[in-house]
Specification:
Length: 131
């Protein structure tokens, strides 16, 4: 994990992805390692694979949040998904997070942003002229 983080600091995302991949093989359900691998893959341009690991990490974080009632890390992951324009993935995390912790305002903010961004991607935008 440390070698992967050092590679990220040097902006060597290929080496980082390799290190995080090895670390995930050793700790196959570690959400932090999965998120780091996902971010590295996204930075390398392999967005589909990266988002897969980010979403997986988010699901593991939600499982932990159900026990602890702390959705902070899951919401951080939703924010990362939004950064990579995966509003569908962020939406699913946010929906569950606000059910776990309905008094956490940040969950609703990220949920609203996901809904907003998904609505902007309509095929009918801008609306056709009506005559």
């Amino acid at each position: 994990m440390e070698r992967g983080q050092a590679a990220v600091q040097q902006k060597n995302f290929a080496a980082a992805a390799e290190c995080f991949g090895k670390a995930l093989a050793e700790s196959p359900k570690d959400p932090q390692i999965a998120a780091c691998l996902g971010q590295s893959l996204c930075w390398l341009g392999d967005r589909d694979a990266g988002l897969k690991y980010l979403r997986l990490s988010g699901q593991w974080l939600l499982k932990k949040a159900k026990k602890s009632r702390d959705t902070g890390l899951a919401l951080d992951l939703a924010d990362q998904l939004q950064h990579w324009s995966d509003y569908d993935g962020a939406l699913e995390l946010c929906k569950q997070a606000v059910q776990i912790a309905p008094n956490h305002v940040r969950g609703f903010q990220l949920l609203a942003l996901s809904h907003s961004r998904l609505n902007q991607k309509s095929r009918h935008w801008p609306p056709p002229n009506k005559r």
